[in-house]
Design goal:
By secondary structure, the protein is α+β, with helices and mostly antiparallel strands. The chain has 15 helices and 23 strands. Helices cover 46% and strands 24% of the residues. Strand 1 and strand 2 form a beta hairpin.
């Protein structure tokens, strides 16, 4: 018998809810404490490692750029020694070519000792007077370095120094090379595009609490990015002390700010690159993160209590639901036939309704295949569908016949549903059956009547087609021609358009039949129709109105167009020989046709028979004139 649905015992569930709540809250706060301890110990190391990597990247970029600037000044020095001095002002293009591939150099200019620019890659600089203090700021750091390093100016280029507003956004750094020409002292001056360095640094992702700075060996700030704004004198003083000991290192400055400064210097170029970490911001962020983690832990604890409370309430509802389902299960068992089936398709149990309907006892069904009592009726399609559904754990629905124990059959509407455990695995199937024998009998009677109606409609369609089609050539016959021709005349009357008719007669066709037989003649007729159909439109009609006599109706076609159709038909008929077969042998024959053409713009007095008669007379005149031609005339 179908088993009753058991109602779960509530004590175990309630204890589990309480224990789970305590364990989850404890795990949340233990995890919070452990994570805080670990994060505080590693965040500073991560910042330091990240800063060192960025500083190394920036130093490489800076060194390559300064090396390129040094090479450019070398090339400029060679240029000035290879040409006459008075020709240099006209060599702007040559000077520009030296910095064409150097985006870091904004302009390259040659200045006298007094600051007069006499040649430049930028024509605006030529003739400009550089203030004396600008040239005096150029300092050579050692005898090993040829270049002189100056200060930073907030102007676009040399010609604007002292004339415009000082704008740090477009500032340049002045680097010079002193040389002697004809005993006179000159300077090659390169204006370095500082915003280019800032753009590069900004494209590289780095911590928001980190600033990048560039200072020369004289403590002058060349460039600084980030939140620092300017470099404090405390940083500069301590940096000078440490640079005496090592070119790479790290400085912790606790007053007035809490800073950690990593630095890298290059003796080839008198500049030092700094990465300045504001530890106050760093620890503020760490504290903020800790607050977030505390809030998350608190939220998880509250959410755990809420979720488990909801689950507990859901369990109470579940208990009520199980009771309700149990009652529904009993009610369904009283109304529907039910069979429980295992995954192999063997019957596990059945309800009384099914046993009483089929006449089986429970012992006769248990362990037997579900198909036992219907395999003699539908051994193939339905049973295979059921087996396939069971194998794949799918629901199956369908109507099929079953046999009772006494051999009687009845139609059953069946739904086989897979029952799954909590892991989603199918454990068994339950089939619900409803007796639909009466409905199926009515459906079968209706389907038989529909089949008879379809057969009758098909017969009527074939009769209509046969009544309008010539059996031999499969073109229209005389009956269809008369209807079509009359409709074409009536339509042409309404729109005052012409209509033309062609009467065709195969030349000497009787001779072909008498000489080669009617089988050959029939093939000639079929081939002729096949060729002629290619010469007319879909809206035209080709009909067989006699033995070898055909007629073509051309709606909305005047006499000239009808003549062209007639000429095409003459051509396709006589151009290629007709090949006919008889008793494994073939005959190649030349066939021609004569055509009579008449055309009219119909009126209310137009006589259809007269139009046919004129075309027929034209046909016979074409025959008399030697065949293989057409004769045409306009009516009215």
């Amino acid at each position: 018998m179908i088993q009753k649905i058991p109602v779960p015992k509530p004590i175990l569930i309630r204890v589990s809810y309480a224990a789970l709540t305590i364990l989850m809250i404890m795990a949340t706060w233990l995890g919070y404490a452990y994570i805080n301890q670990e994060i505080k110990g590693t965040q500073l190391k991560d910042l330091q490692r990240h800063t060192d990597l960025e500083l190394l990247l920036f130093e490489d970029h800076l060194a390559k750029t300064l090396d390129a600037i040094d090479s450019t000044l070398n090339a400029a020095e060679i240029l000035s020694s290879s040409v006459k001095l008075d020709s240099l002002p006209h060599k702007s293009q040559s000077i520009s070519s030296l910095i064409e591939l150097q985006p870091a150099i904004r302009s390259l200019s040659l200045s006298t000792k007094t600051g007069k620019v006499i040649a430049s890659s930028d024509l605006k600089n030529i003739g400009a007077q550089i203030p004396p203090q600008v040239l005096s700021s150029l300092i050579k750091t050692s005898s090993q370095i040829n270049n002189h390093f100056g200060e930073v100016y907030g102007y676009r280029d040399l010609y604007l120094i002292g004339k415009g507003r000082n704008d740090p956004e477009i500032s340049f750094w002045l680097i010079g090379r002193e040389l002697s020409i004809n005993g006179q002292q000159y300077f090659w001056l390169a204006t370095i595009n500082l915003p280019m360095f800032l753009n590069f640094w900004e494209r590289v992702e780095h911590d928001t609490e980190t600033s990048i700075a560039l200072v020369d060996f004289f403590g002058r700030t060349v460039l600084i990015s980030g939140h620092q704004g300017k470099l404090s004198q405390v940083v500069v003083n301590q940096l000078n002390n440490y640079l005496d000991q090592s070119s790479i290192g790290r400085i912790d400055i606790n007053s007035p700010e809490n800073l950690r400064v990593a630095y890298r210097s290059n003796l080839r170029h008198p500049v030092t690159l700094l990465a300045i970490n504001d530890l106050n911001i760093f620890f503020d962020k760490s504290t903020a993160s800790e607050r977030k983690r505390f809030n998350i832990a608190l939220a998880i604890s509250v959410l755990t209590a809420i979720i488990l409370g909801l689950l507990y309430r859901n369990h109470i509802q579940h208990e009520s639901l199980i009771t309700e389902i149990s009652n529904q299960h009993r009610a369904i068992g009283e109304h529907l036939m039910m069979i429980e089936i295992n995954k192999s398709g063997d019957i596990l149990s059945a309800n009384n309704y099914l046993l009483n309907t089929l006449g089986y006892t429970l012992d006769q069904l248990i362990g037997k295949s579900f198909n036992t009592f219907n395999e003699d009726i539908y051994p193939s399609p339905v049973n295979k569908e059921i087996k396939l559904a069971i194998r794949h754990g799918n629901t199956w629905q369908g109507v099929f016949r079953k046999s009772k124990v006494n051999g009687e059959t009845f139609w059953a509407n069946s739904t086989i549903i897979p029952f799954k455990n909590v892991w989603g695995k199918v454990t068994k199937y339950v089939a619900f059956l409803t007796d639909v024998t009466q409905a199926v009998n009515v459906q079968e009677k209706y389907e038989k009547e529909q089949d008879l109606r379809h057969e009758l409609a098909e017969i009527n369609r074939e009769l209509a087609q046969n009544a309008n089609t010539d059996v031999l050539t499969e073109c229209f016959n005389r009956r269809a021609f008369d209807v079509f021709f009359k409709e074409a005349i009536d339509k042409s009357k309404n729109n005052q358009r012409p209509v033309s008719i062609l009467i065709l007669d195969l030349d000497l066709f009787k001779h072909i039949n008498d000489t080669y037989g009617h089988l050959i003649g029939d093939q000639i007729l079929k081939e002729s129709v096949k060729r002629w159909k290619k010469c007319i439109r879909v809206s035209d009609m080709l009909a067989r109105i006699g033995g070898e006599e055909f007629c073509i109706v051309l709606p909305e076609t005047g006499l000239d167009d009808a003549k062209r159709v007639a000429q095409k038909i003459l051509s396709v008929t006589s151009k290629d020989l007709f090949e006919a077969y008889l008793d494994n042998s073939s005959q190649k024959l030349r066939v021609t046709v004569s055509i009579g053409v008449s055309s009219v713009v119909p009126t209310n007095t137009t006589n259809v028979d007269q139009l046919m008669s004129i075309a027929d007379n034209n046909l016979y005149e074409a025959k008399r004139n030697g065949r293989n031609q057409y004769k045409a005339s306009q009516v009215g």
